[in-house]
User: What shape does this take?
Amino acid sequence: MLVHPISPVYDGNSKILILGSFPSVKSREMMFFYGHPQNRFWRVVSAIYGEPFPETVPERRSFLLRNHIAAWDVIASCDIVGSSDASIKNVTPNDLSPILAAADVRAIFVNGKTAEKMYQKYTEPRLGRRAVALPSTSPANAVWSLDRLIGAWSVIREYTEG
Assistant: This one.
């Protein structure tokens, strides 16, 4: 059983919440979200907001907060083999209420099908809030080009402005 080692990123100005499923091996090593160099999350969001690619953890944390984005994962603990979402079993979900109490979150987005499935099963019934599913930025989702991902993910910007 692995316990999620990364604290959520949010503040009182967060307008959206982006949830993954559970951190990859690389993200757990880096102690921050989307740490695998082939994951396209940081390339996608930096392109959407017209900012330079954030390289370091402090740069990434600052990027999220500056753009009113809260980030975490659906799963607090689970059994997982490596980074394989398909292997996830014995799920305990994260409690999102501290984030939602601290910020006026306009929309919740999930990064990929596993996050969507886990959110719908464990979180949506408790919160009574639907999440918008976005295509996974994982390198395993090779059918989606970087340009297609940027196009699909651009919807987040309308919730973080104004």
